[in-house]
Every structure is written in C-alpha cells, then in structure tokens.
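The freezer alarm interrupted the setup, so I double-checked each line after restarting. Inputs confirmed:
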Amino acid sequence: MDNYSLTNLRELEAEAIHIIREVAAEFENPVMLYSIGKDSSVMVRLAEKAFYPGKVPFPLMHIDSKWKFQEMIDFRDTYAKEKGWDLIVHYNKEGFESGVGPFTHGSKVHTDIMKTQALLGGLNKYKFDAAFGGARRDEEKSRAKERIFSFRDKFHQWDPKNQRPELWNIYNSRVQKGESIRVFPISNWTELDIWQYIRLENIPIVPLYYAKERPVVEMDGTLVMVDDERMPKELRDKAEMRMVRFRTLGCYPLTGAIESEADTIEKIVEEMMTVTVSERTTRVIDFDQEASMEQKKREGYF
Amino acid sequence: MTTKKLNIQEFLDQDQKKDLLRLLTAGSVDDGKSTLIGRLMADSKMLYEDQLEALHRDSKRIGHAGEEIDYALLLDGLKAEREQGITIDVAYRYFSTAKRKFIIADTPGHEQYTRNMITGGSTANLAIILIDARHGVITQTKRHTYLANLLGIKHVVVAINKMDLADYKQERFEEIKADYKAFVTQLDVPDVNFIPLSALKGDNVVEKGDNMDWYHGPCLLEFLENVHVSSDRNFDDLRFPVQYVLRPDIKFRGFSTSVASGIIKKGDEVMVLPSMKKSKVEKIVTYEGELDYAFPPQSVTVTLEDEIDISRGDMLVHPDNLPRVERQFEAMLVWMDETDMNLSTQFYIKHANNNTKARLDEIKYKVDVNTLEKSNIEKFKLNEIGRVVITTTKPLFFDPYKKNHQTGSFILIDPVTHNTVAVGMIIDKLGSNSLPSRITDVDKEKIAKGEALIKPEEYIQKYNQKGETIWITGLHGSGKNELAFSLEKKLFDNGATVVLIDGSSVRSGLSRELDYSPADRAENLRRVAHICKILNDQGIITIASYISRNESLRDQVAEIIGKDRFHMFYMDADLEYCKNNKPELYKLVEEGKTSGLPGVDLEYEAPTNAKLVFNPEKNEENLDAILDYLAMNKVFPNH
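Predicted 3D structure, all chains:
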C-alpha cells in the first residue's frame, strides 16, 4: 500500500489544484491576485499545473501600489512575458495622481488608498466573482480561522462571525450578483512548506529574498532599502551598504529588510528555523492598529 | 526520536519526504486542551529544530518546563474570544516533526459548538478526545466520541489528562479506560488508544517523563508520528468524479479531478456515469509528465480512447464496480444554520462535483448527542443531528459514507440565503424500492388539506408541457370533431400527453341520464369542464370540442377550468356547410322529430374572443396554426 501514499507537499499540492479547478468550473469570472511574492509564485505554479497542458483559464491581476520594489516589477514583467500570462496590472489612478505615498501620507493612508481601495477598484472594474489570494493560515491569527472559500458581500467585506461551514472538499460557491468569494488554495501551507516547494519545483522568486549588499536606512528600528528617488534626500544620505534580505515583499518603505547572509534557499530555511520572530513582523502594516489584519480583512483587504 | 544532527541539505531532503496527518481536538479550556496543544506544538518544534546542526538548544528543559511556561498562552484567541462573547470557530494550527506535518483543527467542546466540531473533523484522520482524570468519562466525552464516529474518523486517542492531579495512579487510568471501553462498544470506532498524561507537567506528551513508569505505551507525539493512516483511504472502488473538462484545443480533451477513491490505471476499461458508455484510459496527464496510475487524493487529468460526451459531475468508474445511481437515499444530517429548517425548502445539494436540487422527504429520528437516544422531531434546529430520507432532482452517484467519505458526503445550500445549512453522510441502505412509505407527516397534512404532493412545475418538467385545455366551439357538423381528433393524433405523435374528451363517450357514460334540453346541455358542459380541470391539474393537455352555444356557457366552462389555461378556438362554418356535412340531425329537427339544435331552433352565438378562427375546409392549415399557437404559448412543447 505504501506506493499509494503522498508526501505532505504532494498532498497539499493536490488539495490546491482541486480548489483552483473548482473555482474555474463554478465561477463565471475568476481572477488570481498576484502579489509577486513567493506565495504568489507558488500559487501561480499550482494554477499552471491544474490546467496543464492547457493555459490558465483566468487572468492574473497585480495591484500595483506604485511603491513596489523595482526588482519586483522587473521580475513580474519578465515572467509574465516568458510564461504568457494574461496579466492585468491595476492601480488607484486618483490616488497615484494626487501623490499618495507612505513618506507623505503615512503607512495607514497609503495602504488604504493604494492597496485596499486599489484592490476593490480592480475587482469592481472587471466584475470578478472570485479572487484567488495566496494567504496562509499560519501567517497571522485572523487567518487561522478563515475559510478556503471566504464569502464577501457586495462591499467585499468579510464577516468573521458569520462564515459558511466548510466540510470535506465540498466548497459552496453560490453567490448573488455583486457578491464574491476570496479563495485561498494554499491555506494549509506553512512558511516551511512554501520554501520546500520552491526548492523542490525550482520556482523562480524575486532576488530580494536572497541576501545581498543593499543600500539601507534605519528608520524607527526598521531597515528600509533605498529603491528610488522618492525617499526623502535627508534619509537617502544616511544610507549604508549592508548585507540584507527580505522575508516578505511589499511597498519598499513599508517592508523592512533583515540583516542576513542567507543567499540560497537552504540558508534561508536554516535562518528561518533559528529566528523565532514571525514572518510578518517585518511588515510595518501590522503594527498600525490593534488587530489590524482582521480589521483590514473586514474592509476587503486580504 | 532521532538524535542525529543533520546539515541543512540533509535536513531538507529528509523533511521533504514527510507525510501529513490531520487531527481534530475538541474540548474546552478547562480540560487543559490549550495547554496540551500548546505544549505539543512548542516542545515538538524544539525537538524538530534541534535536528539541525546549526541549533544547540538545551533540550533538557523539554518535558520539565511546566511550572514556568503557560503553554495555553501560546494559543491566541480561544479563551479571549469566548470571554468577549465572539462566536468561536474552528482554528487551524500547524506544526511539524521530522516525520510528519500536523494540521490541528482546534474546536471548542461545548454542545453549542457541535457544528464547529463537525466542520473541523470532516477532514481529520484522527481525533484526540480529552478526559480530565479527576472527572473521568463524562457527557462531553461521549458526545465527542459520537461525533468523531459519525464523521468516520478511524483513529481515536483518548488522552487522559491531569494525571498529576490523580497522583499519577495506574488504577485511576485503568478505571477510566474500562468506563470508556464500555461506552465505545455501542459505536464502531476501529482504533481506540489510551494515553495517560499531564499536559501541564509534560508527562507523556512529547517526552515520557518518569512519573508513570507503569505505562509502557508511546507518548502522545510518538503515537501521532507513527499511527498508520495512509491505508485509511479507499483504494478499492474507482470513483473519478469529473470536476473540470479540459479542452485547450480541438485535439486534447481531458477530464480532471482529484481521484475520490480507487486506483485509475492507464489502459483500464472505464464506464461513464450516467451515460453508461465505456472506453479505455488513454493517458493520465500531469504537469510532471504522464503517469501509469493515479490514486487518491492525487489531482490528475485523464484522456479516453473514444470520444464520449462527458461533463462536470459525470463519474468514471470500473464497469464491474458501480456506485449506487439513485435519486433517493438515507443519510445522517447535521443542521448547521442558525435558522430552523423549513421542510418545504428545495435545497441545492452539492455532492461529488455535482449540483442539483434536493428535498427532505422524512426525518426518521433525531439523535441526542449526549445520550444517543432517538426521538421524533418535526424539523431540525441548529446543531441537531438525525436520520433523513432525501430525494434529489437528478440521480447522484454515491456510496455509503462509511465505505467512501468522498462519494458519501454532501452539503445542502439554502436557495435564498446561499448558506451551507446542513451537511450529510449517506447511510448504507437498500435501494429506494425497499424504502417504506414515502408519505411524510407533512405530506399527510397536505393530503388532508387536499394539496397535491407534486408541484405544478414538476409536471411541466416531466411532461414538457403545460396541462391546459383546447376548447373548440362551433355548430354541429362544422368539422370541429375532425380537427379535435387529428390534433390529438398529432400531439400524441409529437410526444405530448393528451386526452380528448369525446362528446359521444361522455354522453353514453358519464352524462347518459341527460337529454338535449338547454339545462341538461349546460350540465353536460359543466361535467366536461370538471374533467378537463382534473386532468389539467395533473399536467395533462385536454382537447374538448363542444357546440357550447353562447358566451355565458363558455364563460362558465372557462371559470371552472381556469381562465389562463382555457384556450378557445372557433370552427367558423356556415349552416349550409354543416347541413351538407352532417345532414342526419338537421333532418330530424326539420322533420320535427327532435328540437333544441343550435343554429336551427336555438340561437348560436359565435364567439368574439376566440384565439383562432378556423375554416373547416382547411384541416391541414388549421392543424399547423393550432400547433404553432401551442408552441408559442409554451403549452407544448414547454421549451
């Protein structure tokens, strides 16, 4: 019987493919939200597997806050072209034109306008009825109790107290017009699973995850990388070259680097297992307000 | 426990081979559940990471840290949420050892959280039932065991916790074990294991400790790491419920799904349900390349040698091993919604990638989850569990849940709120022919009130027509009977279910005491109208050709049948034509041998509101016109 058993990674993979195909079969207009991060890279690979030898039958959408690391944008454009993805890049035009940014408006306003509002704008513009996200339940406590098919009302809001029961692998995809489902095919993956899978499958990821000498400025205890001219000059002048890498990727002024020598996946995992700080603590966003992630999720952010 | 230190490459290579165990824990904070999970996660993490060469922790601490660390604090949420009065849900927690990854579905234990436990347990391989050594087997223990058993969880670990508060006494452990065994024999749990432990002190959780030398079994983590679950899946009965039809170009036509059960092999002869067509597996396609065989829960795509029409919800099986293909079955149902069940609801049912509608025919009984006693109920409330009879609109392909979790489980969705209101597990039971009366108590009430159990829509769907009346008026001899009989034949040939209420048949039987006086003519028409009504109510089309000489008579008929299903046509023939066509009766009237014939000694009022007016000499055209009319009004065919 032993040849009929799957490893943890293959079982998670089979589960994710099942979820992705279910959405393609039951929804009229799904989209996969692509953040360029490592979890997104894994999710896109799973979608490619689900429909092989065919193409992924729905578009990917990147919500560009216009403050992403340049290396992320380069990576996105290279792979979208190489793999032939149907990629939508959406941003909040009004926000961008009125100059909203983390340095001038603070992280809270920036995140709300350039990320949450931009996401909602993108979803409304294309009338998507299902949107895949690469969130994992082990990332953060409000996610630990979220469903794989997470129902959102007409205003994209999540109601944690009123979630649909979700049993076996039978997913309820019934929505009224205007309502939608956020779908998390890699809910049951841990950070270690993600790294293991990237290693096993040789999935390309943004080089920022690997340690390298980079110009950084220390701001309120966070190491912020100088990515472009929009960082105020007085800060840029304080920049120094340090061996750093990023555990998560977001807007460059909001995502802190960590000092690290880990320049391979193996070293990253080794570092991860010896460092006890949780992954998201390098994201400034979580510290902004009490239970901030749950609040943001209720408002429609992932 | 491995002690060899590995470098990172070795560590990752080994780690990548580990498998996955999904487990359910149910209990309240008072049982020490949080402490147990907290310790399991924290201590195993240390052991796991200690395998890495880079790490040099003082592992002596493990198993003896109880006094210093509040492990319960490691788990956020549960306690705080309850204090705040927030609905406690299922929380998923993850931890790993070198051998396995574990997903814990952590659910609260009180009765009002039964649905949460059901949700968390649906995918679990194993359940941990917590018992406080001071209290022994209590109601909650029985409830949790019953629910684990209902969900078909094959492995149960009875964790007898707080042994430190029972002086680590073997007698206490044995006593509880005996009590539990006495109770569990009523159920059908294949694998039950007992572990005495103290989550607080760490005895027998991750390390054995030395407080219970009399216990020679494995500690909890060791047990979880080694329990054999891969053979729990059904590898015998091939069920390949098509989830997605993959058609990237005209050459490739693949059928994708996660294999529900059994093994599918290249070259296998397979049968497609419901069409019963057979073909062979040509290829099993994956991104990594073709496979010779696939097994559950792999998600694959197969192609077949023959071109067969297959869509989502169809199922590939081996021809010598079929599931049940039926519209009716019995199941254990758990009501999950805050709102009470409404018995007349037609639910959406989702089962093995199939969507259809379902209605509850009968609630056989409700089970009290605490005492396992059965009782009769009218409808389900939140958290109630019972046995039901369900009928679906189209047949499902299923197996009993006990044999096959994938094809034996379903969810019911409310058609209005779209909530998942109930979940069910199909019971091994004989086919629908052997089911007792399908008439439920609700049905009996309806019958008492004279209400039909079949809805008008169901007739329309079944016959593909609307039960309405085609009424042809006209003088005696106008040719309306010829039209009526040829119309009946035409509709019958086209597949309609139609009855012609023939005037002479009625006159010679049902109305044989009536004569041709105006009063008796009216009475005859009243009877005909009622026959039409009864038949129309049953979805059947009726054709009636009667002189029905004036507006008030025809209105009465329309009133009885129902105005919206009364379609009147007029055969417009002049008297001379009629006399030539059927001279006998006209002659009798002219000779004074009889009287009361409309058009001769009684006035015939031609209708002003006929849907169509016919010329008697054009029978073919009249027929076409009437068929067009029926199609346009969706009387027949209905689509």
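Quick read of the result. Chain B touches chain A through 72 residues (CB under 8 Å).
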